[in-house]
Design a protein that fits this description.
α7 runs parallel beside α8, α9 packs parallel to α10 and α10 crosses α12. The protein has one domain: Aldolase class I (TIM Barrel), CATH 3.20.20.70. 50% of the residues are buried. It is α/β, with parallel strands linked by helices. It is globular and about 50 Å long. It has twelve helices and 13 strands. β5 and β6 form a beta hairpin. An eight-stranded parallel β-barrel has the order 3-4-7-8-9-10-12-13, surrounded by four helices. A three-stranded antiparallel β-sheet has the order 5-6-11, with no helix packed on it. The longest helix has 22 residues. The structure holds flavin mononucleotide. Flavin mononucleotide binds next to β6, β11 and α11.
Length: 343
């Protein structure tokens, strides 16, 4: 069913197709459309960071930036969904066009630039959602906030969102907000994370409940710098890692008519870089540090690769756009077969 719908959607410009698909899915939830499309997801529960995930396959941040479609997306069979990135105030993002399809590579390039309705809107949506599964909220900084003052933006979002979600992701790896990735470097990282962990600990005391704080990193690293930053993350009090965001590297799509578009490349071409970052993170952080593997999953076997590289959970974005909800159950089956082989 999704293949048929996708052929129609892919006739529209990518961002319009995205909005049409999400609005149709949300409208169709009253007649059970998401469940019909998602089919029956296999259970493979995971307990991690004090949370119970009904299955290990989640929706990555960026698809439902404002939390407007949680009920419909939650009914498709994901084990968890991550909404955002949101910033303290609404912002329009970059001028259009800012999203491009590379179907020959099962890939997308986007330079959306944290277009979102602001954290207060997301809080309202979280308060009213009927979805009872695990929800992560992904937070970022305003375009105009200098990197040196970024912690204040993240702490503002953290405070607002804290009582209304199950975990919070600190996004310091989008390539579409100028200088954001500087926060990943060891020069800023320790002090920045320490401010966030202190804020989270205060919120945990205030609300009597501790929400895990995760950091989402890029796939574009010099290895020495990556290991140095991972070591800072491992001792910072942060509870988990998400590897990875989109890549700036265009080697895998060289010659494609959209290869020269500015922005982050996602989908199949990012997988080798994302898997390598994941494996390095697992080696550096040890066997017990929670890691969510993300980047380039377009088949069940890709999720199995991430499991073998050390992921505790996975997330989907671009592969989900190309393959639809059947990718969720395919990934769960492949994940289970890795666990059965290694049990
Ligand atoms: C159109 C688009 C928008 C995205 N927006 C966000 C975002 O707001 N926040 C974020 O942390 N990641 C965002 N991402 C990155 C994805 O969550 C994911 O890290 C990346 O696409 C790699 O996974 P994939 O290959 O499965 O797509 C976005 C990706 C795409 C394609």
């Amino acid at each position: 069913m999704y293949g048929w719908l996708r052929n129609g959607l892919f006739l529209l410009p990518p961002e319009m197709a995205h909005d049409v698909a999400l609005n149709a899915l949300s409208a169709g939830r009253f007649v059970g459309l998401p469940r019909l499309m998602g089919g029956c997801a296999h259970a493979a529960p995971v307990d991690l960071m004090g949370l119970h995930f009904p299955n290990p396959v989640g929706l990555a941040a960026g698809l439902d930036k404002n939390g407007d479609h949680m009920d419909a997306l939650g009914a498709l069979g994901f084990g968890f969904i991550e909404v955002g990135t949101v910033t303290p105030k609404p912002q329009p993002g970059n001028p259009k066009p800012r999203m491009f399809r590379l179907p020959e590579h099962q890939a997308l390039i986007n330079r959306l630039g944290f277009n979102n309705k602001g954290v207060d809107h997301l809080v309202r949506r979280l308060k009213s959602t009927r979805y009872r599964g695990i929800i992560g909220a992904n937070i970022g900084k305003q375009k105009d906030t200098p990197v040196e003052e970024a912690a204040a933006d993240y702490c503002h979002c953290l405070e607002k969102i804290y009582p209304h979600c199950d975990y919070v992701t600190v996004n310091i790896s989008s390539p579409n907000t100028a200088n954001l990735r500087e926060l990943q470097d060891t020069g800023h990282l320790s002090e920045f994370l320490s401010e966030l962990v202190t804020a989270r600990d205060a919120l945990a005391a205030e609300h009597g409940s501790r929400r895990p704080l995760l950091v989402k990193i890029a796939p574009d690293w010099d290895r020495t710098a990556l290991i140095a930053s991972l070591e800072v993350i491992g001792t910072s009090g942060i509870d988990g890692l998400i590897t990875t965001n989109t890549t700036l590297d265009r080697t895998a799509v060289a010659g494609h008519r959209h290869a020269g578009e500015a922005g982050g490349l996602s989908g199949a071409p990012v997988k080798p870089l994302a898997d390598d970052t994941l494996a390095t993170a697992r080696r550096t952080l040890g066997p017990d540090f929670p890691i969510i593997g993300l980047g380039g999953i377009t088949r069940g076997e890709d999720a199995a690769d991430k499991r073998r590289a050390g992921a505790d959970l996975v997330q989907l974005y671009t592969g989900f756009i190309y393959r639809g909800p059947e990718l969720i159950s395919e990934c769960i089956r492949s994940w289970q077969s890795v666990d059965e082989t290694t049990a």
